[in-house]
Amino acid sequence: MLAVFEESVAKSPQELKSPVSDDASLKNGRALIDYFASNANGSVAINLGSSGSLAYSTDRQNPLLPRMFAVVDDIYCLFEGHLDNITLMKQQYGLSKTANEVGIVIEAYRTLRDRGPYPADQVVRDLHGKYAFVIFDASTKTSFIALDADGSVPFFWGTDLEGRLVFCDDSQLIKMGCGKSFAPFPKGCFFTTSGGLKSFEHPLNALKPMPRVDSQGQVCGATFKVDSSVKKDTGMPRVGSAANWSSQF
What we know:
alpha+beta; Glutamine Phosphoribosylpyrophosphate, subunit 1, domain 1; 6-stranded antiparallel beta sheet
């Protein structure tokens, strides 16, 4: 799966950009989507207008980590993997017996957005399994991306030459668009438009960038690790009944 977002939807962390000059012949995010759509069998590409693009294919997927896509009420979701507690999640969100993982994730996001009773880290932590997912909410022009606590699904993020943030499950493909400005997406973490990168396993701790060096000894995009020595401000903002909680995660 492949997602490319403009800076207004997903602003790349500065540390993700490699200090090494990348080849100007790299494909920008939009060209990367076109390349994927032309070369992956049975691929589907979705144009999100000025916000970016999504693309996926079920070709050559791991049968234990299937790829899924769905759109519900302007919420787009790419999902790869499976949930171990799918029955419990369907009951929790009042979904039908036929609901699958991608439908559960969309409903979990929508419940969170529309004044859910739990913080975002709790909602993601309740999803047990092996997964990575990308959500784009067209109604608010926001993104929500997460990877399970064990990093079970190969999942990467990077910055193209024009500052777009790219998410992909194929390291070779993301190299074509981001060069050395990419890294594995941090396991046990989620990324949102308003809140940036956070750990859902350790929500009270900050994340610190760690230099990533490739096999040639060159510095690439940084990885991010939980900093056990730095605690975040835990003050809970007061939210009125008319407030939009989408800005709180």
